[in-house]
Amino acid sequence: MKKSLETPIKLNKTVALCIAAYQEDPDYLRKCLQSVKRLTYPGIKVVMVIDGNSDDDLYMMDIFSDVMGRDKSATYIWKNNYHEKGPGETEESHKESSQHVTQLVLSNKSICIMQKWGGKREVMYTAFRALGRSVDYVQCPFQSIGKQYDC
Questions:
Q1: Angle at 71 (CA atoms; ends 47, 55), nearest 5 degrees
Q2: Taking a C-beta distance cutoff of 8 angstroms, is the pair 101, 111 a contact?
Q3: 3 state DSSP class of 47
Q4: Separation between Cα atoms, residue 2 and residue 52, nearest integer Å
Q5: pLDDT in tens, the chain (151 residues)
Q6: Whole-angstrom Cα distance, residue 67 to residue 26?
Q7: Max alpha carbon distance in the chain (Å)?
Q8: Helices (H), 6-90
Q9: How far apart, in Å, are the Cα atoms of 53 and each of 7, 78, 102, 103?
Q10: Which residues lie across from 51 on neighbouring strands?
Q11: What's the CA gap between 113 and 129, in Å, rounded?
Q12: Do residues 103 and 113 touch, judged by C-beta distance below 8 A?
């Protein structure tokens, strides 16, 4: 059954927009984030996860902070990811860093995480795992080799 245009739409669901980034064109990324910032859905959460944590990847985190607002967003450089411990990391410290990432995502409206390279699936897994059951809806489309995928 379709709703008529006169039926009021309830905006009471919690929503997260996940952005997977890997060596993105700076202008394209900036335009993407500016578009996201203009969204007016109440309480939308934005989680951008960068696939790579080298100095060469920092420009994407800088663009995120510039567009989303340094005082209104959080950033975190993670030496590993949920599936792999970092160099010299113990099981306990890996568990602590994983919990820290989850807490950052849950306590901020917009956050950018740089993590150890692992591919787009690993990046999306980080966003989904950190969000857990805190939102009612997650949207994370991505393109690969000219094809559009929706998660």
A1: 60
A2: no
A3: strand
A4: 43
A5: 555 556 666 778 888 999 999 999 999 999 999 999 999 988 899 999 999 999 999 999 999 999 999 999 999 999 888 888 878 889 999 999 999 999 999 999 999 999 999 998 899 999 999 998 898 877 666 555 555 545 4
A6: 12
A7: 60
A8: 26-37, 58-68
A9: 46, 7, 18, 20
A10: 115
A11: 13
A12: no
Non-local CB neighbours of 56 within 8 Å, separated by 6+ positions: 23
The whole-angstrom separation of Cα 71 and Cα 64 is 12
Rounded distance, CA 10 to CA 118, Å?
38
**Cβ-contact 68, 39 below 8 angstroms:** no
pLDDT at 142: 57
Which amino acid is present at 45?
A: K
Between strands 15-21 and 137-139, the pairing is parallel
Q: What is the dihedral of CA 115, 118, 121, 126, to 10 degrees?
A: -30
Residue type at 151? Answer: C
Tokens standing for 62?
């800088």
